[in-house]
Amino acid sequence: MSVRATSRMSVELNSTSSNAAFGVARSLSGRRWRLLSADTSAVQSLSNAIGVSQALARLLLARGVTPDTAATYLNPTLKHHLPEPLSLKDMDKAVGRAQTAVERGEQIAIFGDYDVDGTTSAALLSEFLSAVGAPTRIYIPDRMTEGYGPNERALLQLQADGVSLVVTVDCGAGAVAPLQASRAAGLDIIVLDHHAVDIAPPAVAHVNP
Predict the structure, then answer these.
(1) CB-based contact 172:202 (threshold 8 Å)
(2) What's the Cα-to-Cα distance from 185 to each of 6, 11, 142, 158, 199, rounded to whole Å?
(3) pTM to 2 decimals?
(4) Which of 36, 118, 132, 197 could hold 62 in an S-S bridge, CB 3.0 to 4.6 Å?
């Protein structure tokens, strides 16, 4: 490559970089980074208000962040971003039945799926119920021998062992037949499940976001 061509390329790259975000003229995939235009005074104002660099303030402004919302944006919490739990369908029924079970000292079982969603949900719910004076039994079915979700044999065995309320976590929404058999036997079940179904399960409550 000639000296002139090299010089011209250098000028072009410098010109491109000067207009690129943080001087990145081309990303690894060959795309150019560009920042949305922002009012200089607004950038300075946000930077001063929350104590961040102007570069970060400009990025925050591009996302619609203001001095009033910056704190919750930079330090998000589940309490702030999740909806009011009682706004979920059947949540009031689920809470009411669970509260009754706790107050009466009923035996409660948590029926969870074997995966991460199910096991962590079972652990969290068990920890909470234990903290309010209601020790629980956790049942995780064997995926190879029992299949996915609640099954009639396991539910009726829990009832035979003295359980009067079963709370399913990360499963149960599609277990219509096992839940019908359990209801007929007098076992109450609360379904906490995020899987979409066409037919609502026959349960005391079906909480599904």
Answers:
(1) no
(2) 84, 82, 23, 12, 21
(3) 0.67
(4) 36
